[in-house]
Amino acid sequence: MGLLANVAASRYGEPYPPLQFSLASPVDRLSDFIGIAFGFRRLTADAAWIQTLVYYGSADAGADAETVEQGGGQYTQFLAYCQRVAGIDPYFTPIYYYGAGVLGWNLNRIDEAEELLKEGIKFQPKEWRFQKFLAALAYKDGHNIDELIEFLEGFVEDNDCPNMLRSILANIYKKQKRYLDAIKVWTIVYQTQDPLYLERAVSQIKEMYPLAKQMGLKAH
């Protein structure tokens, strides 16, 4: 183990974090250490990312069926799973957006969402959208819907935007009876072909298309 640690330390100087940071999460696995030691950070981060999705996609112990259906639950180790991915590869941008979205919106743990985003800012200071995301969390916490909409509108077409945030904007539009705008967002979601959101996108578009026609809007 000592030899591998030396290999890992010598293989990765800046801009990658030291080994003790990369393996600081309580949910780290031996495979993480081996992957880092042999120079496969991105591949190892990909595997950890998939395991994070599986963890959040599984029913949380103790949560009722309705809570699980709405994406809620405790998922007490979710931040640790996200930090595991970020520790392996701090330039794995999707983990910050997805993780902060789940923590801030679905799990209502804004402090943890902010902690994760600040870690992203530390390693990617030029990624200005992290700062915007922090602001969006503040808007959400302060119930400032107009500012939240403005942030989401500037982000939904970005490839790094999680479909969860797109669905939040679409639902806001729906509540405001902005059906055509909601359809446009759900169309973006549909085009990602994300299996977690595909069926919902289709059902929402079908539901709102006649509502948009009733209001005299022309939906494409």
How does the SSE layout of this entry go?
Layout: H1 2-11, H2 19-22, H3 30-37, H4 41-57, H5 65-69, H6 78-88, H7 93-106, H8 110-123, H9 128-141, H10 145-153, H11 163-175, H12 179-191, H13 198-214
Helix pairs in contact: 1-3, 3-4, 4-6, 6-7, 6-8, 7-8, 7-9, 8-9, 9-10, 11-12, 12-13
Key terms for this structure?
68% helix, 13 helices, mainly alpha, 220 residues, disordered N terminus, single chain, Serine Threonine Protein Phosphatase 5, Tetratricopeptide repeat
CATH topology, which one? Serine Threonine Protein Phosphatase 5, Tetratricopeptide repeat
User: In whole angstroms, how far apart are the ends?
Assistant: 60 Å
Query: What percent of residues are in strands?
Result: under 5%
CATH architecture descriptor text: Alpha Horseshoe
Shape summary:
elongated
Order of helices and strands: HHHHHHHHHHHHH
Return the structural class: mainly alpha
- The counted number of beta strands is 0
* Total count of domains: 1
What is the C-level CATH assignment?
Mainly Alpha
Count up the helices.
Answer: 13
The profile of the biggest β sheet is: none
Rounded Rg: 19 Å
User: What value does the average pLDDT take?
Assistant: 84
Percent helix range: 55-70%
What ranges have pLDDT less than 50 throughout 5 or more consecutive residues?
Answer: 1-14, 65-69
Kindly describe this structure.
The chain is mostly helical and 220 residues long. The protein has a single domain (2-214), classed as Serine Threonine Protein Phosphatase 5, Tetratricopeptide repeat (Alpha Horseshoe), CATH 1.25.40. It has 13 helices and no strands. Helix 7 packs antiparallel against helix 8 (110-123). It is elongated. Mean pLDDT is 84; it is low at 1-14 and 65-69.
